[in-house]
Design goal:
It contains ten helices and nine strands. The chain has two domains: 172 residues, Rossmann fold, CATH 3.40.50.620; 95 residues, Pantoate--beta-alanine Ligase, Chain: A,domain 2 (2-Layer Sandwich), CATH 3.30.1300.10. It is globular, with a radius of gyration of 19 Å. It has 284 residues and is of the alpha/beta class. It has a six-stranded parallel beta sheet with strand order 1-4-3-2-5-6, sandwiched between helices. A three-stranded antiparallel beta sheet has the order 7-8-9. The chain binds pantoate (PAF). The site of pantoate has 10 residues, from strand 2 and helix 6. One of its GO terms (cellular component) is cytosol. Catalyzes the condensation of pantoate with beta-alanine in an ATP-dependent reaction via a pantoyl-adenylate intermediate.
Length: 284
């Protein structure tokens, strides 16, 4: 496995692969990789001849008061994980390699980006779409792999790929959890020991909601109430949002009779964590 920093050099390698008729899988990441990323790389390895993992903390998807500067970075650890998981290349560009100083193109997927995380993070999805489409143009993968933990991101990228005719299959991969249920996230590294145990309340509240849905409850307000009550029982937790939306349109539902996404964002101390599950009435 090799690490490449320059776009031209990466393109040269990809062209050689394409000339040999090899397929390419892309796993876009912001680094500080964990078992969730590892599962994406392994899936990409299974389904493609070659795998590129991009490691780039993308400045355009962070708002002015967000954690761009403090976002955890450890390229040596990432290289070891990628190599063990079977990746062929880590693409680790600098911000000036990725972005022209006078770049002025934006990509906005309207509708899907307005609720959930987009409501409080107005620049986030524009930045994600911009960097992901640049990576798609640089790597020209056959398939690209994203985690279902970022359910809104996955829906937005799928829509962008369809709307802009990218010839790329977007593959969503299941959430990977710690043994005690906490969804794996690079941001879990911000949590103190005490906050780490408090963070379990996210998955616990979703588990209660799933049980109620399985028991046949179909009133979104009642389900949201179950989640909110559980989250409020943890003094370190501060709710950002608890939402039940249609899993395709991401619009809130009045009654649960279709495929829904139950999504939450919660501050544990200063750390904002997200979690979710999808549910189809009669189908789970
Ligand atoms: O999910 C992430 O880590 C990022 O949003 C992504 C898709 C790598 C774009 O920077």
């Amino acid at each position: 496995m090799i690490t490449i920093n320059a776009i031209n050099e990466l393109r040269k390698q990809i062209n050689e692969w394409k000339l040999k008729g090899l397929t390419v899988g892309l796993v876009p990441t912001m680094g500080f990789l964990h078992e969730g990323h590892e599962s994406l790389i392994k899936r990409a390895k299974k389904e493609n001849d070659r795998v590129v993992v991009s490691v780039f903390v993308n400045p355009t998807q962070f708002g002015p008061n967000e954690d761009l500067e403090s976002y955890p970075r450890d390229i040596k650890h990432d290289e070891a994980l990628c190599s063990n998981a079977g990746a062929n290349i880590i693409f680790n560009p600098s911000p000036s390699e990725m972005y022209y100083k006078d770049a002025s193109t934006t990509i906005n997927v309207l509708g899907l980006t307005e609720g959930l995380c987009g409501a409080k993070r107005p620049v986030h999805f524009g930045g994600v779409c911009l960097v992901v489409s640049k990576l798609f143009n640089i790597v020209t993968p056959n398939r690209a792999y994203f985690g279902e933990k970022d359910a809104q991101q996955l829906a937005v990228i799928k829509k962008m790929v369809r709307d802009l005719n990218f010839d790329i299959e977007v593959v969503g991969c299941p959430i990977v959890r710690e043994i005690d249920g906490l969804a794996k996230s690079s941001r879990n590294s911000y949590l103190s020991e005490h906050e780490r145990s408090a963070a379990l309340v996210l998955n616990q509240s979703l588990t209660l909601a799933k049980e109620a849905l399985l028991a046949g409850k179909n009133d979104p307000a009642a389900i949201k109430n179950i989640i909110t009550k559980k989250l409020d029982s943890e003094s370190l937790a501060k709710i950002d949002y608890v939402e039940i939306v249609d899993s395709l349109t991401l619009k809130p539902v009045d009654i649960i009779n279709s495929s829904i996404l139950v999504a939450i964002a919660v501050y544990i101390g200063k750390t904002r964590l997200i979690d979710n599950f999808t549910f189809t009435q009669g189908g789970n």
